[in-house]
Specification:
It is built from one helix and five strands; from the N terminus they run βββββα. The chain is mostly beta strands and about 80 residues long. It has one domain (about 5-70): Thiol Ester Dehydrase, Chain A (Roll), CATH 3.10.129. A hairpin with a 4-residue loop joins strand 3 and strand 4 (about 45-55).
Length: about 80
């Protein structure tokens, strides 16, 4: 079920700085949720954009779980 889409739009050199931002824009849908990542260079140019689809799995049973609100809340864009 996991899926990853990554667009590379630039490079970072040794000693360059980069900033990363993680968002869950749409909120979870049952067990699935998409995370969006953007990495920008020191000039504010987006050099990497990615979207990954994840699912929560119960360790004890191995079954898919609904994403609890307390897990997604720190990442959801208001």
């Amino acid at each position: 079920m996991p899926r990853h889409e990554i667009d590379y739009r630039g490079n970072i050199g040794l000693g360059d700085s980069v900033e990363g931002v993680t968002e869950i824009r749409e909120g979870p849908s049952g067990a699935r949720f998409d995370r969006h990542f953007t990495f920008t260079d020191g000039n504010g140019k987006a050099i990497v954009r990615a979207r990954t689809t994840w699912a929560m799995i119960d360790r004890a049973t191995g079954r898919v779980l609904r994403v609890p609100a307390e897990v997604s809340a720190p990442f959801v864009t208001p």
